Amino acid sequence: ALYAKDAPVPVARKRLRDYAGVLVGNRDSWWFMGFYAITFGGFAGFASALPGYFHDEFGLAPKIAGWATAACVLAGSVMRPLGGVIADRIGGTRALQMVYVAVTVLVAAAALGLGGAGATVALFVLTLLCLGAGNGAVFQLVPQRFGAEIGLMTGLIGMAGGVGGFLLAAGLGVVKQQLGSYALGLWLFAAVALAASLCLVGVKQRWRMHWATAGAARV
């Protein structure tokens, strides 16, 4: 607070109409918000819901359920910067595509109840690893599309991630309360990840044609 300074360059102040212009006039902003609502929303939502899930489904003591969740969260947190590195090497859309396909398979396997507690913890460690990589991949793509509005879009996309996390955690709780099992909630999230993968196939060609420039980071 004492020593922080603004950058010594002119900065255009953003107003509410600038946010409205991006949201109304650019459909790519909604795509990015949706993709991040799944990757970061999945990460944050599972981080909130997994302690109860491990306890309810497998009878793990609260302390053990907490440690298992911590392992999942650590994996996803460490993987986020590595996801950006991977996206730089193979392309952001390709990395994100792989993330959504892997998450679909892993969460569907968890919904099937394959294996016991140890196997399920391993599945969710891998799931959050993938979601962490997806977070990095999304923000490898953002500056390529929104170089002039990077601060504005970072806020909007981050907001969408928080909303996604709330919806996942709350949704899993509602499903458990109404049906006595988390399985349907997991199936729904797997379906959302699969839908995101299919949507990404549809938009990546347009992205490559219209805003990937020679010499830019790989799309």
Distance between the termini: 38 Å
Rg (C-alpha, Å): 19 Å
* Spans where pLDDT lies below 50 across 5 or more residues: none
Q: Give the averaged pLDDT, no decimals.
A: 87
H/I helix tally: 7
Description of the structure:
It is a single chain. By secondary structure, the protein is an all-alpha fold. Helices cover 82% and strands 0% of the residues. The protein has seven helices and no strands. α2 (27-58) runs antiparallel to α7, α3 packs antiparallel against α4 (92-112) and α4 (92-112) runs antiparallel to α7. The radius of gyration is 19 Å and the shape is globular. The model has no long low-confidence stretch (mean pLDDT 87).
Comma- or semicolon-separated keywords:
82% helix, 219 residues, 7 helices
Write the layout of secondary structure elements.
Elements: H1 16-25, H2 27-58, H3 62-90, H4 92-112, H5 117-145, H6 150-179, H7 183-210
Helix pairs in contact: 2-3, 2-5, 2-6, 2-7, 3-4, 3-5, 4-5, 4-7, 6-7
Care to give the gist of this entry?
The chain is mostly helical.
